[in-house]
Design a protein that fits this description.
about 525 residues
């Protein structure tokens, strides 16, 4: 057991608390782990609170609360697979410490179990913050007394503990498939992962645009919807079990525990062979000599950044999701211009439309984390970049400008679309665009600086850097805090006159951009040399 707990500790650190390469690491580890857990918990809480309350408003009068847990269970299962399938590929099958751990006097099954348990714990956090808030909403809004019995919470807790077992089994199997495809076909694996992520995003957008129609259909035929979900029998067993059917709950627990145990035992037997095979296939030996085209220094560095961004699906989708949301929001507002106008008219004419649009654009831009993990993604090959005949200041400027190369055009497109869709005046449209571009520049410069201040050059894989490094967490949440301060300044300024209300946030963003730029210019080269 001591060996298993030691291995589990290492695996959890790989998932959440991978060490920094700097000496003062304990606080950074803790902050990184807490940030990741808070991010997963916050996303689950938001999704569950919003959608379970919407569903309960329709289903409670029909006494069909069971469907709330069916849909929330599906959300937890699919969301958990999205979060951990590619992480399983890196942590379970592609960890840099596999050779070291496999040489230790422990069984491969114990090693496999420890790494799978680390993934289970991450899924457990997400499932808890999906199902428990749904249970609270059910207990508050029910009209049939569901949730008022103490045994309800016991059954709900059992479901929370069991569901991540099934989620983890599916994630690890999918991770093994992704690892095999990536090792077999290096380029094909990247393309396949991008296609999977694109399909998932398309499904999420379709769900968001058709949510109202789905809820109306539930109100009209809730019982028929439940019968049509026979293909999702485990979710039906879970929902019926939570609401009082102990037999269904036992079936659900077995349905989750048995595949998990078989997966651990089965893959544990062949774990050493699988890891070795993936590593051998990824070591290509079919290189061919060919003529190389000459290019300038900046062009070569830009090509390197482009290949990294589009060659690492986890990096691309986590870093550029905010840009996709930003452009999608602007285009959707333009297409649904009439419906948006009616909705704003129903809310009243006194609503500050332009500041709300600026906040939404800023929220999307704050999720763009291209510059923050840029240095950390160089990893152990940072010395190659350092030996290039390019000055530190020029190198940092190119990495910062690389984010602006993507975010600035998307900001302009979204700003113009929102100006037209919301029928803003020329002055309001100009202020909206200027504020968004200032925030865009401040975010890129701050992300570059924070990436130098909190590097993670020895992470086990790119997933840890992109999803779980302290630089990425701070690069997202500090700009979000600046957005909140801008909103406060606008509110205070609006008490005096509209011009002051628009001037104060612009002044704050300009000062933030200038301060971050000055820090990066003065301190950045020295920080890069110290790595």
């Amino acid at each position: 057991m001591k060996k298993f707990l030691a291995l589990l500790k290492v695996s959890v650190k790989s998932m959440l608390l991978s060490s920094s390469n700097m000496g003062r690491k304990n606080r950074k580890k803790a902050a990184t782990g807490v940030g990741v857990v808070l991010l997963i918990a916050g996303l689950g809480l938001y999704m569950s609170g919003l959608y379970s309350s919407m569903l309960m408003q329709v289903l409670a009068p029909l006494q069909m609360e069971v469907l709330v847990f069916v849909f929330m269970g599906m959300g937890a299962l699919v969301g958990g697979m999205l979060f951990t399938a590619f992480a399983a590929k890196g942590v379970v099958f592609g960890g840099k410490d596999n050779d070291l751990l496999l040489s230790m006097p422990v069984s491969t099954t114990a090693l496999m179990a420890s790494r799978v348990t680390a993934i289970y714990l991450e899924n457990l956090v997400f499932s808890f913050f999906i199902l428990v808030p749904a249970g609270v909403v059910c207990a508050v809004m029910t009209q049939s007394g569901a949730g008022h019995n103490p045994l309800f919470w016991v059954r709900l807790l059992l479901a929370v503990l069991a569901l991540p077992l099934l989620d983890t089994a599916l994630s690890v199997l999918m991770g093994a498939l992704v690892a095999f495809v990536s090792a077999k076909l290096a380029k094909g694996g990247v393309i396949g992962q991008n296609i999977v992520m694109a399909l998932y995003l398309a499904a999420v957008l379709w769900f968001a645009f058709n949510l109202n129609g789905m809820i109306e259909g539930l109100a009209a035929n809730a019982a028929g919807v439940k019968e049509s979900l026979s293909w999702a029998a485990p979710m039906l067993w879970m929902a019926d079990g939570i609401l009082g059917d102990w037999t269904a709950l036992v079936l659900f627990v077995l349905c989750c525990a048995v595949p998990f145990a078989l997966m651990v035992l089965g893959l544990g037997r062949v774990y050493r062979k699988a890891v070795t095979a993936f590593a051998a296939r990824s070591a290509r030996n079919d290189y061919k000599l060919s003529a190389q085209s000459a290019s300038g220094q900046k062009k070569a560095l830009l090509g390197m950044e482009l290949r990294r961004l589009f060659g690492i699906p986890m990096y691309f989708w986590n870093s550029c999701m905010g840009l996709i949301m930003l452009v999608g929001m602007g285009v959707a507002a333009l297409i649904l211009r009439d419906d948006l106008g009616k909705m704003l008219a129903m809310m009243g004419g006194g609503m500050p439309v332009m500041p709300l649009a600026a906040l939404m654009m800023g929220f999307c831009l704050s999720m763009v984390v291209i510059a923050a993990p840029s240095v950390s993604l160089e990893g152990k090959y940072l010395w190659v970049l350092r030996e290039a005949p390019v000055g530190e200041r020029a190198l940092l400027g190119l990495k910062t400008g690389f984010e602006l190369m993507f975010s600035a055009p998307c900001t302009v497109i979204a700003g113009v679309c929102l100006t037209i869709a919301l029928e803003l005046s020329p002055l309001e449209g100009a202020v909206l665009l200027l504020a968004a571009l200032l925030f865009c520049a401040a975010h890129a410069v701050f992300g570059m600086f924070i990436g130098l201040a909190f590097p993670k050059l020895d992470a086990v894989n790119e997933t840890v850097v992109v999803k779980q490094s302290l630089a990425v967490v701070l690069g997202m949440f500090v700009p979000m805090a600046a957005l909140g301060l801008c909103a406060l300044l606008y509110w205070l300024g609006s008490m005096a006159n509209p011009v002051l209300a628009m001037a104060l946030p612009l002044a704050l963003l300009a000062a933030f951009t200038a301060a971050c730029g000055l820090l990066l210019m003065k301190k950045g080269p020295g920080m890069l040399r110290a790595l």
